[in-house]
UniProtKB/TrEMBL annotation:
Alphabetical keyword list: Phosphoprotein
Keyword Repeat: no
Feature: compositional bias, Low complexity: 451-463
Domain PH: 297-404
InterPro entries per UniProt: AH/BAR_dom_sf, BAR_4, PH-like_dom_sf, PH_domain, SLM1/RGC1-like_PH, Slm1_PH
Region Disordered, residue ranges: 1-26, 408-472
Pfam families documented for this protein: BAR_4 (PF20400), PH_20 (PF20399)
Protein's UniProt name: PH domain-containing protein
Domain of life (superkingdom): Eukaryota
Residue stretches of biased makeup (Polar residues): 408-427
Bias-annotated ranges (Acidic residues): 16-26
């Protein structure tokens, strides 16, 4: 720190030899010094406020870091998934908790040091400045008042001398002994001498105060520098400790081996995790309750052609189930799409016509749309054609046994005017037709004896069976 230099000699003189009672303000210098001390006092007050605010901030930070600590509270949720030994994620969080608690404590300690060590330095300096102000007021301030009093006395006698010298001129020198200008002048000289002594004494006091101000201000600045140095040391220590804490957190996280947690997880759950060497599951190897129950096995299944609305025939996959439903599907593939029937006929509610070669008709209502759809659906005549007369006979016989009525109506044998594409009208297995599967025993097991309601084609009258009410 630089040593304060000696102040230069002021150029202003304290007195004017031409005037017995100068018109200057004797307290002007004292007021100037008092104002300067007030400036120093306020400057130190700013530093006190700064230290106090910083202390409160660190205390608040201590509380905030306690809130931060709660975000990594112990134990961790699903903590059993992490290895509890050091070197893993659980150890990393324990390190984070420890360092975060340390940061909180460091802020509390910093606040404590700022309030107990740094702030008193500036409070004591503030008190010194206040005492210096009192010293100036009681010392130089008193001298200025004494000078003002002496000057007032001298001025009073000078005015009295002027009054009686004017009377001497007007009255021709006739006056009392006490009013003799000669005596009055000597009285002025006496009081002027006392005034000058007071002025010189005050001058020496002000010079002494003026000279001491250099050392006092140097002391003020030196104290401020010392206090700020201690402040820097305290906050720098706290900042370094916080930096080290965060560095330790990051370092601990970076030291966790990439496969540490996974290897521990696999070891702890080796009886639960999937063996990658085990074969994949297959539908063919799976069984479930009621699999292949007799009610699930079709009575007959395979490809049939059904006459389209306009012309020609479309080939689809059909099944007659033990529940006496004739279901129509696009394909027999259960995996490509959900096997929802395109049409479903409940055969006991249907009427089956006579067999004519490869063709036969079934009249009934499509019940595949649920209860609401069934209510509003109309009866339709479905015209079927098998691939061979033998296949047609098998289909017709099984459907006849399940149907509600059988007639001698022969299907329309007219040939379409335009040729039918191979895709829509295949003629046999070589065109992608599905093989025919039959199970007539299932039908016999599924229902009761319908001999009273089902009429064989050979026994049916030529004119057909009489239709029941509400049927076609």
């Amino acid at each position: 720190m630089a040593t304060p230099t000696s102040p230069s000699v002021p150029s202003r003189a304290m007195t004017n030899d031409d005037d017995a009672v100068p018109g200057e303000d004797t307290s002007e210098v004292t007021k100037l010094f008092a104002e300067r001390l007030a400036a120093w006092k306020h400057a130190v007050g700013y530093l006190e406020d700064y230290i106090t605010a910083t202390e409160k901030t660190h205390h608040a930070h201590g509380k905030e870091y306690e809130r931060v600590l709660k975000t990594v509270r112990d134990p961790l949720k699903e903590g059993h998934h992490f290895d509890q030994s050091l070197g893993g994620i659980a150890g990393m969080f324990e390190n984070i908790r420890s360092n975060t608690q340390g940061i909180s404590n460091q802020h509390y300690e910093t606040a404590k040091q700022l309030k107990g060590i740094i702030l008193p330095v500036f409070e004591r300096l503030h008190t010194e400045i206040k005492n210096k102000t009192k010293e100036l007021t009681k010392g130089a301030g008193k001298g200025s008042k004494a000078v003002d009093k002496a000057r007032a006395t001298t001025q009073k006698h000078i005015e009295l001398l002027g009054q009686h010298t004017a009377s001497f001129e007007s009255h021709g020198g006739k006056m009392t002994a006490t009013d003799d200008p000669y005596l009055l002048q000597r009285g002025v000289m006496h009081r002027l001498n006392k005034q000058i002594q007071e002025e010189n004494n005050n001058r020496q006091d002000l010079i002494s105060v003026q000279n001491s101000f250099a050392q006092f201000e140097a002391h003020v600045i030196q104290t401020i520098q010392g206090g700020m140095g201690q402040f820097m040391q305290v906050v720098n220590t706290q900042a370094e400790q916080t930096k080290m804490a965060y560095g330790d957190m990051v370092g601990t996280a970076q030291k966790v081996p990439l496969d540490f947690e996974w290897n521990g997880f696999v070891q702890r759950n080796n009886t639960i995790l999937i063996d990658p060497n085990a074969p994949a599951r297959s539908v063919t190897n799976i069984s479930f309750p009621n699999q292949n129950h007799r009610s699930t096995k079709p009575l007959i299944a395979g490809s049939l052609e059904r006459k389209a609305k306009l012309r020609g025939y479309n080939t689809n996959y059909y099944v007659v189930t033990p529940s006496k439903f004739l279901h129509e599907f696009k394909t027999d593939d259960d995996f490509a799409k959900d096997p929802v029937p395109e049409n479903s006929l409940y055969l006991p509610d249907c009427v089956v016509g006579a067999l004519a070669g490869q063709k036969f008709n079934v009249k009934g209502k499509d019940v595949s749309k649920g209860k609401v759809g069934n209510t509003f659906s109309m009866n339709h005549e479905f015209q079927f054609k098998a691939h061979t007369p033998s296949a047609a006979s098998q289909w017709w016989e099984i459907i006849r046994q399940a149907a509600g009525q059988v007639t001698t109506d022969i299907p329309d044998s007219s040939v379409p005017t335009s040729p039918v594409s191979k895709q829509n009208s295949p003629s046999g297995p070589e065109h992608g037709m599905l093989p025919l599967r039959t199970d007539t025993e299932g039908l016999e097991r599924a229902g009761t004896n319908k001999s009273s309601t089902m009429t064989p084609a050979s026994a049916a009258p030529a004119s057909g069976v009489e239709k029941q009410p509400g049927q076609y």
